[in-house]
Automatic annotation (TrEMBL):
The keyword Acetylation does not apply. It is a multi-pass membrane protein. InterPro entries: ABC_transp_permease. It is found in: Cell membrane. GO terms for cellular component: plasma membrane. This is ABC transporter permease. Keywords: Cell membrane, Membrane, Transmembrane, Transmembrane helix. It comes from Anaerobacillus arseniciselenatis. The chain crosses the membrane at residues 12-29, 58-78, 85-104, 151-172, 200-222, 228-249, 256-276, 288-307. One of its GO terms (molecular function) is transmembrane transporter activity. It comes from the Bacteria. Pfam families: BPD_transp_2 (PF02653).
């Protein structure tokens, strides 16, 4: 059980980078970008192909990020210059990326289990400095018997994800970031200040998909393979993470919101892991579980708000009756 929860936390931190990308497009730019399903695989495919070809995994990951940025920019161009509906722009790019990803990979699946990746380097370093031994001793003293093979990867995942979070926070507080937020809120208003909303949209979608591609590249190295179908439903997972995080942790500031998105991604993975341990649920029910989680996250806050409003009205009526009596 502990290994399952630990693994879900570990994976959730990596997926949180993708969720931050979805947050930028969905919440900041108010752009329903379905490119995510394709750019996630693009990041995984490019990283895997370059690693198999003998490139340094770090260089392969950086190139994957650039490819994701390019994919997002093309989606932005389709919408802004081609005057195509935002939803349709994302769908068209997602479909195009499916064929492009197949071209990049040359086949539907690329295994990385025998290759040197960032994760294998981190695992080796963690073992060499004795970090795994220290953590194993700590958890054993707490009564845990079945432990993960390495603890270094979760620390690496947390550091990378927090760096991306702080980068997003910094970006959204700059002049460009404020213009991006204004573009998502009210394009007509920001245009009145002579801002080029087309360029801002293209740039914002590029950054969003760069984050998504980075997540894909890291997940491929974490899981030990890149698969053409690994991006299916990724936009829903990203939205689930954003919605769950916002519902549980709030959106008072940008820093809190981005942290909430990370928390939402981790909670989502934990909920899915626990749900799959239920006897009558199978791995094939994953998409159904995701849909139920998203529906619950969307509906529950409204039900709670309605209940609070009814209680408030009831108290108000009671007080009025007391005054009248």
């Amino acid at each position: 059980m502990f290994i399952s929860i630990f693994g879900s936390i570990e994976a959730g931190i990596f997926y949180a980078i993708m969720a931050l990308g979805v947050y930028l497009s969905f919440r900041v730019l108010d752009f329903p970008d379905l490119t995510v399903d394709g750019s996630f695989v693009t990041g995984a495919a490019i990283a895997a192909m370059l690693i198999v070809s003998g490139y340094n995994p770090l260089i392969a990951t950086v190139i994957a990020i650039l490819a994701g940025f390019l994919a997002g920019c093309i989606t932005g161009l389709l919408h802004t210059k081609g005057k195509i509906n935002p939803l349709l722009s994302g769908i068209l790019m997602m479909i195009a990326l499916y064929s492009i990803n197949l071209r990049i990979m040359g086949r539907s699946n690329i295994p990385l289990l025998s290759q040197e990746t960032i994760m294998t380097k981190i695992s080796q370093l963690s073992e060499r400095i004795g970090f795994d031994q220290v953590m194993s001793s700590l958890f054993t003293s707490l009564g845990f018997t079945h432990l993960p093979r390495t603890f270094g990867i979760v620390i690496f995942a947390a550091v990378v994800t927090l760096l991306i979070k702080f980068l997003a926070d910094y970006l959204l507080k700059t002049e460009v970031g404020l213009a991006l937020r204004a573009t998502g809120d009210n394009k007509k208003m920001i245009r009145s200040f002579s801002a080029n909303t087309d360029n801002l949209t293209i740039f914002g979608l590029g950054i969003s998909n760069a984050f998504v591609a980075l997540s894909g590249a890291l997940i491929a190295q974490y899981g030990g393979f890149a698969d053409i179908g690994m991006g299916i439903g990724m936009i829903i997972i990203g939205l689930a993470s954003v919605i769950i995080g916002e519902a549980l942790f709030g959106t008072k500031t940008i820093a809190i919101t981005t942290l909430a998105v990370i928390g939402g991604a981790i909670i989502y993975r934990i909920v899915v892991t626990l749900a799959l341990r239920v006897e009558f649920l199978e791995t094939g029910d994953l998409k159904l579980i995701t849909a139920v989680i998203v529906i619950t996250a969307l509906v529950a806050p409204k039900i709670i708000d309605n209940f609070k409003e009814k209680q408030r009205r009831k108290r108000k009526r009671t007080e009025q009756m007391k005054v009248a009596g």
